[in-house]
Amino acid sequence: MARHALRLGMVGGGEGAFIGAVHRMAAALDGDWRLVAGAFSTDEGRSARTGEALGLDPRRVYASIEAMIAQEHALPAGERMDALAIVTPNHLHAPMAIAALDAGFHVFCEKPMAMSVAEAQAIAEAAGRSGCRFALAFTYSGYPLVEEARVRIARGDLGAIRLVQVEYLQGWLSLPIDGEGNKQAEWRTDPARAGPGGCLGDIGTHAFQLAEHVSGLRVEAVSADLATHVPGRRLDDDVGALLRFAGGARGLLKASQVAAGEENGLRLRIHGERGGIEWAQMEPNTLILRWLDRPAEVLRAGGPGLDARTMHLLRTPSGHPEGYVEAFANLYRAFAAAIRGGGDRWFPGVADGLRTMRFVEAAIANAASDRKWTRIDPGVKE
Questions:
Q1: How confident is the model at residue 177 (pLDDT cuts 50, 70, 90)?
Q2: Confidence bin at 1 (pLDDT 50/70/90)
Q3: Could you tell me where the beta strands, DSSP code E, fall in the chain?
Q4: 31: alpha, beta or left? (left if phi > 0; alpha if psi -120 to 50)
Q5: Backbone phi and psi for residue 36, each to the nearest 5 degrees, phi listed first
Q6: I need a surface site. Which of 77, 245, 283, 303 has the fewest CB within 10 A?
Q7: How far apart are CA 79 and CA 299, in angstroms?
Q8: Is the pLDDT of residue 90 over 50?
Q9: How many CA atoms lie within 13 A of 114 on its CB side?
């Protein structure tokens, strides 16, 4: 029997937006998804123009999320959208995700999961009572060589893990462009739309999720310093944190959006008792292994020596670069397989969202206090 593409709706991501277009490319890459509906903007004209540019039936380009959920739900099961992609500013994540889940739609949401742990927990509860799948766009965990690093650490190649260092450096907010009409900067530095963490919530959550996911360890406590370097900015634009992991490993997390000249400098280094790994997002097809008792090794995407789970995430032979969109597509592919009921591929979801929101709240609390360490609430088993 032929496999039909799952039907995707989208809220946000209208003309001029960056991340909505990335979601659409990633979802379409493997033929698992077909965009059928959208409420792309609160500006009805902008939403309509986006739908027209994407070739959608104008009857399925909606003026609001409420109209989309109601009218899609009223369609026959074989026509309505299967899942909703939420690519809006953070303050809309929780109400939109909960409404979609309660209506029986799966959800693929931008990160961070919500504005607070309480909102994230409400989403988790909605996913639980609906039985629907919930995915989060922690894109970097979809890179093949990130999976290779995770697999090698999990099987004990490095021995007991001692050190975890992750940094995410950008420079695009070095100047006060948030006060000069840059829409991406405006909402990301607005507490009402971004939440209590600026750089911390935007890219610090990526760094934290990657560190826990690849190391296989959970952070128990954080000692954080949050800074705002640009005068008049209302949220942090620079973050440093010490991390204490369960089992005794120690970590460093650095995230900044005012590191002038940096592009998208996400870098992860993890060391165990016998060796270490190093991966950088701007050179994603290379994984460096450093050993205590032998020369370093360089693994390449598609090259020899990779685990079968890594090879599953690759689409091209060695020497053909794969990058950001392909990593994103790996998450959409795993999400589709889970919805169809036949997949066991991991993708970031509720547990990752709750963990990162608890990290954000603990880091903010610690930075605002005189305490050396603040414990991260482990929550219930997710």
A1: very high
A2: very low
A3: 6-12, 33-39, 83-87, 106-109, 134-136, 161-169, 219-227, 238-245, 250-256, 265-272, 275-280, 286-291, 297-300, 374-375
A4: left
A5: -125, -15
A6: 77
A7: 45
A8: yes
A9: 25
